[in-house]
Amino acid sequence: MTAKPSSLMQTYARSDLAFERGEGAYLFTGDGRRFLDFASGIAVTALGHSHPHLVKALTDQAQKLWHTSNLYQVPGQVKLADRLTAATFADQVFFANSGVEAIECGLKLIRKYQDDFGDPKRYRVIGFEGAFHGRTLSTLAAAGNEKYLKGYAPVVDGFDHCAFNNLNEVRAKVGPETAAILIEPVQGEGGMRAADVEFLQGLRKVCDEFGLLLMFDEVQSGVGRTGKFLAHEWAGVTPDIAAIAKGIGGGFPLGACLATNKVAAAYGPGAHGTTFGGNPLAMAVGNAVLDVILDGNLLEHVNKVSAHLDGRIDDLLGRFPKAFESKRGKGLMRGIKCTAGIVNTDLVESLRGVGLLTVGAGDNTIRLLPPLIVTHAEIDSAIDMLAAVAAQAKAA
Of the residues 277, 294, 311, which one is the last residue of a structural domain? Predict the structure, then answer.
């Protein structure tokens, strides 16, 4: 008898693994197998699995109120927005359900700001090769990656692209219709490449010189992942807009668009909206995440374990030069670029076989995205598994 085909759309090349529960940095299958999770749901479960403070916040709220819509006041939104603005450059916040919604909010805000207060002819946004900003038509165009654009023509107009870390190209690309620059301080999908500090500082100067807005995509790099609350803080640069998601919900769907008063003034009632965004459940979890990240010593911990991870990766590169080429990224958003002939996705699969979950990325890179609560011992265990797989890897 022929098996019934899945009712799910076939948009994912899923592994055969199915997890029943999680605890801290580990996931467990129904048959009891344990996996060290250095994928974190693609940088989402920032505080690990089943964190007791998050579980309590969600279950307590679930027993009171789930949803009212934004037709009414949501006190949790005010609390979370106040805490986010106190911790960042921003003055105002819009809550959404995902990273791509937060990016879309920012892209719309760029056009609205230029139309209201800048130059209405300005609508184009400069992005960068290797970027990834989400899966909507506009964010696919913003990234400009042919791999993801194929089949979705015509491409949404309004985006130009430059080489990453090349300020001369950016200056040359600015024209009379340019409205803003959009960049990930650390590229995730594109290969875990960190923008040079001088490059980010140069982008701010270009924006100031030409009257452009600077927007950071911090969906993957934000909320403590690099050892600062937002990754761009390492460069001492202040953007006009930033998008966060992933870690801010700790596993619950939550995104946010942050902006200065100057720019947010372009949004009045009816200019943008969402039905589910900022609902009481999401706000309870978001505030619980900040309880741990901002009110404790977690960022200090991230910097300490990041230094340990860096040292262990450097050792790994020295031991296995035929498998691994270089280290990328920052903090607990690290990538290891594989050498020519070694396929990163093959290594990701092999690592699953020895109990380590990782994520592939562009430019033949493996992403290491452990939870921010990861320990030195768990890092050592992950490196041991990487070493075991590297020792067996055969070049194609």
Answer: 294
